[in-house]
Design brief:
The complex is a heterodimer of chains A (337) and B (178). Chain A is built from eight helices and 15 strands. With 337 residues, chain A is an alpha+beta fold. Chain A has three domains: 37 residues, no CATH class; 114 residues, no CATH class; 112 residues. A five-stranded antiparallel sheet of chain A has the order 9-10-11-12-13, covered by helices on one side. The N and C termini of chain A lie far apart (88 Å). With 178 residues, chain B is mainly alpha-helical. The chains are: A alpha+beta (337), B mainly alpha (178). Chains A and B meet through helix 1 and helix 2 of A and helix 1, helix 2, helix 5 and helix 8 of B.
Chain lengths: 337, 178
């Protein structure tokens, strides 16, 4: 069993400790103040020491490398900080991290639960796509048979030779997938071709192929940037406008519309694009860049939200562009020679 | 340089709490001062100029050897002192070192100059370029911090002492009797 000291005794011990500490402090200061016994270094010895140290330092710092090394040895904190920064940069640049990313698109021809669209195949090795669409109100049935080989030929004719046609039957329903499509634009082309060949479009779906990609943070970051480098020297406004559109399209932006105005030496670029979001949520987003002719550094960007007429100012170097389910940054740079 | 030399060297030793380390600091500061001697415009203010260099060097050392802040006492003091008597020089140093662990480098410098080197408030205010009131407040705060640290140390020492010595002695005599 432990007994506590009564409160008045506790206070007493605290006070006495306080007093003792004060006394110790005062006496210690006094004692050290009076301490003049240890002799000081004679000036001539100090001078010699300093001279030899100077010579040492000069020889040590003879080379630039030695200079740098000496700095780091003298300041271990700096070396630790620098090493940590290098580690962070290395992690950022090389350490692979998983991230869900749209790696391509597929066009799927699917059956519908209500039975209005039926998809079938005759052979899994050489699939022959058979689509039946029932019009319930009129009681009519449209049937289309497309040979996979012919479909491939048709797609090759529009410049899509590398597509894969996969037929899958899970015991209940058939699915046809045309995959290995790089961009949404290619997927639209395929969907259009299939629709043209079959004469039906109710059952054609464009789906992004989302995969977990392992890459460094740096790669992930750069993948999400639209970089537009414009060399405006000796080009007309129309030529610059066309170049921006080309570069944005090459970067994967869907249907970019660029309007270009030059008012009193100030350029105004307005970029808009269809942002077909998830589940058909089609919104138009506007970016307006205003900058002086000579430099983009003074540029300002304005962002217009959906359903709003007002342009809000945003940081020109930090724009989020919603492209499908991805967020991308738009950076427009102007090259000056 | 000559009139300032003994005091400045002693100040370095008191500040670092170690003769060798103090000498090193002083030598380093003198070397820096010789390199910067061209920047000294008013020769009348040589003293405060030299002390400022010493203080800056001390702060740099304090930063660069940051792990030393975690070692409470210097080897010299740790190995040679025991007991609470502050009149003994090394004991006094030990208590000051204990108190110093709670202070920032600038506070240590102020306390050293004021309490151990007998600088006046106005001299300190001139050296640090601060109003006298601020210097007074800093000194007072520094002292309080030191006192509280010493108090804590005393408390720990009290707690670590064997309790109920009388009871222990009684049980021993009882055992012997049995």
């Amino acid at each position: 069993m432990r007994f506590r000291k009564p409160r008045h005794k506790q206070n007493n011990s605290k006070e006495s400790r306080q007093k003792k500490a004060e006394q110790i402090l005062n006496s210690s200061f006094e004692s050290v103040k009076e301490d003049e016994k240890i002799s000081t270094t004679p000036l001539n010895i100090l001078q010699k020491r300093i001279e030899s140290q100077t010579v040492d330092n000069e020889s040590k710092e003879y080379s630039l490398m030695a200079k740098v090394t000496n700095r780091f040895i003298r300041k271990p904190g700096l070396s630790i900080g620098l090493a940590s920064c290098l580690c962070l940069i290395a992690l950022f640049a090389f350490l692979p991290v998983s991230c869900s990313e749209t790696t391509g698109y597929s066009v799927d021809i699917v059956e519908k639960d209500d039975g209005t669209v039926t998809v079938a195949s005759t052979d899994s090795d050489q699939p022959q796509l058979i689509i039946e669409v029932q019009d319930m109100e009129n009681g009519t049935v449209k049937k289309a048979i497309v040979d996979a080989g012919k479909l491939k030929e048709g797609l090759a004719a529009v410049g899509l030779g590398d597509v894969e046609i996969i037929h899958d039957f899970d015991g209940e329903s058939h699915t046809f997938s045309i995959s290995n499509l790089d961009s949404e634009e290619a997927a639209h082309k395929v969907a259009l071709t299939v629709s043209h060949l079959t004469g039906m479009d109710d059952n054609i779906e464009i789906n992004p192929v989302i995969e977990k990609v392992r890459a460094s943070l740096l790669t992930h970051a750069t993948d999400r940037l639209f970089n537009v480098d414009i060399n405006a020297e000796g080009k007309t406004d129309e030529e610059i406008q066309a170049e921006i559109v080309t570069q944005l399209e090459e970067a994967g932006m869907t249907n970019p519309v660029v309007s270009f105005e030059n008012n009193d030496g100030k350029m105004q670029i307005q970029i808009s694009a269809d942002s077909e979001g998830i589940e058909g949520d089609s919104t138009m987003q506007m970016f307006e860049f205003k900058f002086f002719d000579s430099s983009l550094e003074e540029g300002k960007a304005y962002f217009k939200e959906e359903g709003s007429d007002e342009f809000k100012e945003v940081d020109v170097n930090n724009l989020d562009w919603t492209d499908g389910d991805k967020k991308k940054k738009v950076i427009i740079k102007k090259k000056t020679e | 340089m000559e009139p300032e030399h003994p005091q400045a060297e002693r100040f370095c030793r008191k500040l670092t709490g170690d003769i060798d380390e103090g000498n090193d600091l002083y030598q380093e500061a003198i070397l820096a001062a010789l390199n910067k001697i061209n920047t000294l415009r008013d020769h009348g203010s040589f003293r405060s100029w030299l002390y400022r260099i010493i203080i800056n060097r001390y702060k740099n050392r304090f930063r660069s050897v940051w792990w030393r802040r975690h070692t409470e006492l210097t080897d010299e003091i740790r190995t040679t002192t025991k007991g609470d008597d502050p009149t003994n020089r090394l004991n006094a140093r030990r208590w000051i070192e204990i108190g110093f662990t709670a202070l920032k480098p600038e506070e240590r410098v102020m306390i050293t100059l004021y309490e151990m080197e007998s600088w006046s408030i106005s001299e300190l205010a001139e050296l640090f370029g601060k109003p006298e009131g601020t210097v007074k407040a800093k000194l007072s705060r520094g002292r309080i911090k030191m006192r509280k640290t010493i108090e804590k140390h005393l408390k720990l020492t009290e707690q670590s002492k064997p309790k109920r010595e009388a009871g222990y002695a009684f049980s021993q005599t009882k055992a012997q009797a049995e």
